[in-house]
Amino acid sequence: MRFIHAADIHLDSALHGLERYEGAPVDEIRSATRRAFDNLIELAIDEEVEFVLLVGDLYDGDWKDYNTGLYFVERMGRLRDAGIRVFIVAGNHDAASQITKHLRLPDNVTLFSTKKPERVVLDDLNVSICGQGFATRAVTEDMSQGYPQGDPLLFNIGLLHTCLDGKPGHEPYAPCSVDGLRSKGYQYWALGHVHKREVVSEEPWIVFPGNIQGRHIREAGPKGCTLVTVKSGEIQEVEHRDLDVMRWAHCELDVSAAETVDDVYEQVREGLQSTLDGADGKLVAVRLTLHGASSAHLKLHADRERWVQEYRALATGLGGAGVWLEKVSFKTKPATSSEDALERDDALSGLLREIRDMELDASALDRLADELSMLRQKLPAELLTSDDPFDPASPEFLKAALEDIKELLVNRLLSTENAS
Q1: DSSP track, 168-187
Q2: Of 64, 223, 383, 391, whose CB neighbour count within 10 A is largest?
Q3: Distance between CA atoms of 281 and 322, rounded to whole angstroms?
Q4: Which conformational region is residue 36 in: left (phi greater than 0), alpha (psi within -120 to 50 degrees), or beta?
Q5: What span, in angstroms and rounded, lies between the C-alpha atoms of 129 and 36?
Q6: Backbone angles phi, psi at 173, to 5 degrees
Q7: CA separation (Å) from 328 to 196, 315, 324, 340?
Q8: Residue 95 and residue 136 in contact, taking contact as beta carbons nearer than 8 Å
Q9: Confidence at 29, pLDDT banded by 50, 70, 90
């Protein structure tokens, strides 16, 4: 017996704010969740699995129109024609109270109750599948406590959309414990909600498969589902299968050895090419970060926009499936230490110390925030609430800007002194 465990599909996820990124492959990103789901359907048919488990967040909230539902119903029909059953629990994004449009699902699909745990027994496979979906968007109780004990004569599977004992970056919904899950006597716990794949336990198997398609830079790396093989009531193999059609990646380069901006450029070329080579032939969206103490620091920071565009052009010309440079972060430092200059007793060192010790007190922060409030009101909402938000009136932004200004002033003064 073989089955597929997938979760967090987020069909037709709305990717707000892409338009503000120059050269963003908007169409490819917006269609990615559907194309990844198509890969899931093809995998199920090719591997001739007995059933597919979809453990929450099939949708991404309320439908914009019926197209999302029609697409899903058609894909479930393909699995029905192949003799493959599907079992679904609702997650926080597709809770019963959030979906206002419904379409009748094919008879091969079982949608578990949101009121209490339900058990379905597949007599032909000696399998018990138990699950309960989210009735509301925020479920804070331990739903697993209501699940029935496993039947010792059957292979028992539990479906649960949960944060488990808490995961960074995820809402604390339906919390539970590994010991609590073990106590139920199930052979496999199919979990959802956490977008990063994790095998929590092998005795019994407790698995987060991760989402099937990364949607932004915080969901970097390969994405897909879990294929499980069972023989004589024992799990023989639990393997990850990639489904994603585009990939997000971080490319962090230490440019300490670079003496010129041309050296940095060549290092960026190599780094982006390596990232593309590791993307399994897929389009890859890259966040590039340059760090380290480099002789090229001042020139990089003095003309950031030029170098961002140079690197974007470089990425465009790499060929293959393609690279889109989502963002470039300059976190380099000057190769020449400012400590010696700070310790001297002259006018320049005194000025450098004054710059270094500059701080924004609470009242200064408030004044700056007030002055920038009008600018903030003119910004698009998605710019303030995106995965990489920009809020010029926030204390964090103002403090970071001050640090950038201090660094720029120190570097300029030291550069002027060295040149004289």
Answers
A1: TTS---SB--HHHHHTTT-S
A2: 223
A3: 9
A4: alpha
A5: 25
A6: -90, 145
A7: 24, 12, 11, 31
A8: yes
A9: confident
The token pair that represents 226 in the structure block: 């879990």
Helix (H) or strand (E) holding 109: strand 109-111
Domain ranges of the chain: 2-242, 247-335, 340-420
Specify whether the CB–CB gap between 20 and 53 falls below 8 A: no
| Half-sphere exposure at residue 353, Cβ-oriented, CA atoms within 13 angstroms | 11
Question: In whole angstroms, what is the distance from residue 294 CA to residue 61 CA?
Answer: 47
Provide the 10 A C-beta neighbour count for residue 169.
Answer: 9
d(CA 69, CA 86): 16
Distance from CA of residue 238 to its chain's centroid?
A: 23
Question: DSSP alpha helices (H): ranges in 200-285?
Answer: 261-277
> What would the two tokens of residue 211 be?
């989402």
- CA–centroid distance for 288 within its chain: 16
Q: Please calculate the CA angle 47-44-34 and round it to the nearest 5 degrees.
A: 140
Contacts of 291 (CB under 8 A, 6+ apart): 252, 253, 254, 255, 331, 332
Contacts of 363 (CB under 8 A, 6+ apart): none
**Token digits of residue 50:** 């007995």
Lowest mean pLDDT among 89-98, 106-115, 173-182, 353-362: 353-362
Q: Which of 223, 219, 222, 328 is nearest to 272 (CA)?
A: 328
- Collapse the DSSP code of 119 into the 3-class scheme (helix H, G, I; strand E, B; otherwise coil) and give the result: strand
| In the block, residue with structure tokens 């971080």 | 250
- Give the integer Cα–Cα distance in Å for 324 and 248: 9
Tell me how far apart the terminal alpha carbons of the chain are, to the nearest angstrom. 77
Q: In 3D, which of 157, 161, 167, 164 has the Cα closest to residue 189?
A: 157
> How many residues does the structure list for the chain?
420
What does DSSP say about strands 188-192 and 198-202: parallel, antiparallel, or unpaired?
A: unpaired
d(CA 17, CA 180) in angstroms, rounded, equals: 41
Q: Which amino acid is at 67?
A: N
Class of domain 2-242: alpha beta
Pairwise CA distance, residues 340 & 354, whole Å: 15
Residue 204: asked if its preceding bond is cis (omega within 30°), the reply is yes
Buried b (16+ CB within 10 A) or exposed e, 350-375: eebeebeeeeeeeeebeebbeebeee
State the pTM of this model: 0.81
